[in-house]
Design a protein that fits this description.
Pfam family, one: DUF2141
InterPro entries: DUF2141 (IPR018673)
Strand content: 25-35%
Number of helices: 3
Helix content: 25-40%
Distance between the termini: 107 Å
Protein name: DUF2141 domain-containing protein
Order of helices and strands: HEEHEEEEHEE
Oligomer: single chain
């Protein structure tokens, strides 16, 4: 009887040694696959509904007269120096190269508040809006909120907009 029992145990151990690694491997594969699905679906709402990790004010400048020079975007948080003293008074300034008569300025990590934007097409790249002998601009310019320059630059209030700290897309068209 002990011989029979021993043969039976040997068969079990032989069977176990050949099928157990495959069974363990299959179970581990299923567990890893299940874990992958759980992780993927756990992050799905974050992926689908996520906003940019760096919210900001995104300014598109379409239909620029030509691709010569740069576009200067100046973000102001107060009326002081708006819009002419952007080098001294603007909160943020960006100089962007023009590509195919378009440009884009992205102001990231901006706190909520009231702001105004001034944009110039600096064709000769001298860092200022050039004018003729009468003071009329010879380079393109534009302002946020559709503010227009009638007999001079618009006020900060006319160009101002509220920013809540999320993504804000603006389009500013230049006047020549």
């Amino acid at each position: 009887m002990s011989v029979l029992k021993s043969k039976s145990n040997n068969r079990k151990s032989a069977l176990t040694s050949t099928t157990m690694p495959a069974l363990v491997r299959d179970c581990a594969g299923v567990r890893y696959m299940a874990l992958g699905f759980v992780l993927a679906f756990t992050n799905l709402p974050a992926i689908v509904f996520a906003q940019s990790s760096c919210p900001g004010i995104h300014v598109k400048i379409p239909n620029i007269k030509n691709s010569t020079g740069t576009v200067a975007c100046a973000l102001f948080e107060s009326p002081e120096g708006f819009p002419t003293e952007f080098l001294h008074s603007a909160t943020n300034i960006m100089m962007m190269k023009i590509r195919d008569t378009k440009a884009r300025c992205n102001f990231l990590d901006i706190p909520p508040g009231t702001y105004a934007l001034a944009v110039i097409h600096d064709e000769n790249m001298d860092g200022k809006l050039n004018t003729n002998f009468l003071g009329i601009p010879t380079e393109g310019f534009g302002f946020s909120s559709g503010a227009e320059a009638a007999m001079g630059a618009p006020s900060f209030e006319a160009a101002s907009f509220s920013y809540d700290g999320q993504n804000l897309d603006l389009t500013i068209r230049l006047n020549y």
